[in-house]
Specification:
With 71 residues, the protein is an all-alpha fold. It is built from 2 helices and no strands.
Length: 71
């Protein structure tokens, strides 16, 4: 039983997880769950990119401020 949960998941473990998900949520709700998971993932990526851009803009403006203060 311990060997079942050690290391990276193999095809049997993935199949067991998929069967459990199917039993818990049913075939009708799986497409809805997949769509909502996809939307959540895309929103997360979008927020991550916006945060990265904002950080880069802030650092660039700080560098420009420091350069102008040196002159």
């Amino acid at each position: 039983m311990i060997a079942f949960f050690s290391g990276t998941p193999g095809p049997i473990e993935i199949l067991v997880v998929l069967i459990v998900i199917l039993l818990l949520f049913g075939a009708k709700r799986l497409p809805e769950l997949s769509r909502s998971l996809g939307r959540s993932l895309s929103e997360f990526k979008k927020g991550k990119e916006e945060g990265k851009k904002e950080l880069e803009d802030t650092l660039a403006s700080k560098e420009n401020t420091e350069k102008s203060e040196e002159k």
